[in-house]
Amino acid sequence: MQAQARAQIHVQKHAAPLPSPWRHYGVSLRVTNVKPLLPFCRLRICCFNGNSHGSERSSISDEKGEHNVEKQQRAAYPFGEIEPRWQHYWEEHRTFRTADEIDTSKPKFYILDMFPYPSGAGLHVGHPLGYTATDILARYKRMKGFNVLHPMGWDAFGLPAEQYAIQTGTHPKVTTLKNIERFRSQLKSLGFSYDWDREISTTEPEYYKWTQWIFLQLLKRGLAYQAEVPVNWCPALGTVLANEEVVNGVSERGGYPVVRKPMRQWMLKITAYADRLLEDLDELDWPESIKEMQRNWIGRSEGAELEFSVLDLNGNDQGLKLVVFTTRPDTIFGATYLVVAPEHDSLPSLVSEPQRTSVEEYIDQSSKKSELERTDLQKEKTGVFSGSYARNPATGEAIPIWVADYVLGSYGTGAIMAVPAHDSRDYEFAVKYNIPVCGVVAPEDTSCSSGGQAYSGEGIMINSSSAASGLDINGLPNKEAALKVTDWAESTGHGKKKVNYKLRDWLFARQRYWGEPFPVIYLDDTGDVIPLPDSELPLTLPELDDFTPTGTGEPPLSKATNWIKTVDPASGKPATRETSTMPQWAGSCWYYLRFMDPTNSRALVDKSKEMYWGPVDIYVGGAEHSVLHLLYARFWHKVLFDIGVVSTKEPFQCLINQGLILGEVEYTICRDPEGQLISIDSPGAASEFSLERVPEEKVMKSGDSFVLKDNPSIRVIGRAHKMSKSRGNVVNPDDVVSEYGADSLRLYEMFMGPLRDSKPWSSSGIEGVHRFLSRTWRLIVSSPLPDGSFKDGTVVTDEKPTLEQLRSLHKCIAKVSEEIQETRFNTGISAMMEFINAAYKWDKQPRSIIESFVLLLSPYAPHMAEELWSRLGHPASIAYESFPEAQAQYLEETLVVLPIQINGKTRGTIQVEKTCTSDEALRLASLDEKLARYLAGGTVKKSIYVPGKILNVIMDKPKVAR
């Protein structure tokens, strides 16, 4: 290579190790004088993250003499040196550790992320959105003098690790620990202020000892029991599948048929807490949509249980009663048939011999469907006649009993009275099978007529009287009629008032290996269930080499024969262990409590610590967990409250659901069969013609649509999709940190839009916030030296700040403080950007102003703030410095816009101080270029001045300069 084609490569040894996965190298490279190389070759510098795949961490490339100006701009902000140094400092000094013994007279702030499942894929940029928000709040509260609890841990038991173990033969513990290490490394690289001393994993025996202990408390109180319940059985795979593993009636893995079959399972009696789970929602600071989801899931409904006598084909009473639950007892006269679920206990007794074969075939077909499929309102209703009838107790008429899978055995009594005139599902079914439809509720407003469909609204009762039954509700409003029917049913023995719930008891067992073992044994001679004493906890998982399904429905733990066979600690009798394990939900139901006291070997949590830290003040996570996880955690918490372990009725006082970060916007055009471009909204475009992606640079915005730049008549689809490997739109945070720095990633994720909204990722957007940080750096430190390095210290002065500077600062303080507390982080960042824009216009940067701004910046961009704070001469971390307080005297607006009239006509406005005098206002008006034209050449005869309102100048000979 020619001599002039040399690049200068500077190797800088770091005093502090770089964060994983960089920590093995301990050096950084800075390449300068690259330009002479460009005509001759391509320069590529790669760093590897040290994992087994050796994937590239970052690369710098340039060729054909093209200078990358953006990379030069990024060099003005040396995040690659700053961030590893401060991450090492925080870890070495345990900066964010929450001491076990604290000053409890200080206010507390417990902020918690829904802890993640550590998958092998690691984080993508959507994950840090909520984590960054909680970190900003945690850092802010520390600076406001709060004791802050901000922990992190791992929800690490469960299905994915076991499936991976089956596929690869690797023990789930090995892959779980590896995944945790990766997640931890990524989180640390983003500078989150977690107390890593409190880190927990649900897979550690020291943790799940207390999960087992909680189960035993449930068992003692009759809240844990065993029952035969239908499960998803896959004959081809030889195993029971969780609901999430079944898609459209087949296994997600392999696509094999799945059937429902009964198995004996552990259940938790969450229904015993249904009313409390409902009532206490009102006291929570949660999104109303989430509370409504929980209300609907619990599904409390008031109505009546009504009894129908079963008849044979000849109308003879068979001595069997069929009980139905209905929320509309007022419509009993309109019940023209009954429906029982395919799994109803009494169904075998209801089926006539001629119908037995068709009913059994239908039951078999229904067993292949999930409950979600069966209750889908859009699906076509199916059913089969049972061969029996029932007597409607109100009318005395015989009505047919049908079997249909749109009725579930798990809800109510597993049987309904069908009123097709006033229920859409019943109406569709009745029309299909030619069953009579009898209207019994007439809307008071005739414009509300159903038009040949089911009418489900309120109204006046019609066709609802029978002398034989003694029930007459004609002419009554339907709500009043419902009460009368219920009273009649109770007085005649035909039924009773009933409150029902959609909520079912929690199926709390999995036929899996990778989960918490149940702390119970079964005596070999009697089969009695014996809970293990506390001294035997934790009952640890045995080591297994074979995790594959048994093929018989028995869990994989049944292969651990030496572990299964045991003795009762109390009696010494031979016994057998439970081979099912607890579901993944178990460990995540109470982890927030363990964070308060993570190393306690004598109790789940110390009472005094729980009374101080509980409840969680802010809980942040995705809306997809807003029903099951939160409902289960609330249930366990209420049980723990009842037995005196916790002091609060609810675990999470405030809930925030962060939105999704979608992939970058994708642009799509459409071509007709001849290959000609057509607008995407043309008839048939989306379904009949071919679609193809176009790059962003070929598209422009036109009104509310996107069009091609070269052909604006062609409209284009612009849409952002959820990040997924299959779409290839996943953005790895490691790559973003490598190119822009962790502070830029944190700042951008907060700047994208409101925390709770979904928004698309944008590469140009992160470049914008990176430029803001670079401008902040240069404002305080100055521009880089010729060799690319920066001088020590800052350019701040000790001069007294001006009034303008104080106003600019305190306006920023007030805005940032308010927006952090209201979690409107994007507008807080905007306020800081406005401040930096204003500060660039100042001749000097007073220390008191700049130090206050750095404190404002620190929750958002902690690495840069720590570095600037150190350069400003402070030896200690910025983490516990006091957050600035806005002073009212600098927030008051002292400038007003003053209209100027000349001889009674408004000619313009000027900006003046509120205390401005008449003479000063006139002087400022004469300096205004536009107003000066009207004031020049004349004499002011008189001026009328209303302070802060108007200045009217009377001229003797007004002239306008031409």
UniProtKB/TrEMBL annotation:
Its EC number is 6.1.1.4. GO terms for biological process: leucyl-tRNA aminoacylation; post-embryonic development; reproductive structure development. It holds the Pfam family Anticodon_1. It comes from the Eukaryota. The keyword Amino-acid biosynthesis does not apply. Residues 806-914 form the Methionyl/Valyl/Leucyl/Isoleucyl-tRNA synthetase anticodon-binding domain. Residues 720-750 form the Aminoacyl-tRNA synthetase class Ia domain. Transmembrane segments: none annotated. GO terms for molecular function: aminoacyl-tRNA deacylase activity; ATP binding; leucine-tRNA ligase activity. InterPro entries: aa-tRNA-synth_I_CS, aa-tRNA-synth_Ia, Leu-tRNA-ligase, Leu_tRNA-synth_edit, M/V/L/I-tRNA-synth_anticd-bd, Methionyl/Leucyl_tRNA_Synth, Rossmann-like_a/b/a_fold, tRNAsynth_Ia_anticodon-bd. GO terms for cellular component: cytosol; mitochondrion. Residues 114-246 form the Methionyl/Leucyl tRNA synthetase domain. The keyword Ligase applies. Keywords: Aminoacyl-tRNA synthetase, ATP-binding, Ligase, Nucleotide-binding, Protein biosynthesis. Residues 295-489 form the Leucyl-tRNA synthetase editing domain. It is an enzyme of class 6 (ligase). It catalyses: tRNA(Leu) + L-leucine + ATP = L-leucyl-tRNA(Leu) + AMP + diphosphate. HAMAP family: Leu_tRNA_synth_B. Belongs to the class-I aminoacyl-tRNA synthetase family. This is leucine--tRNA ligase. The lineage of its organism: Eukaryota, Viridiplantae, Streptophyta, Embryophyta, Tracheophyta.
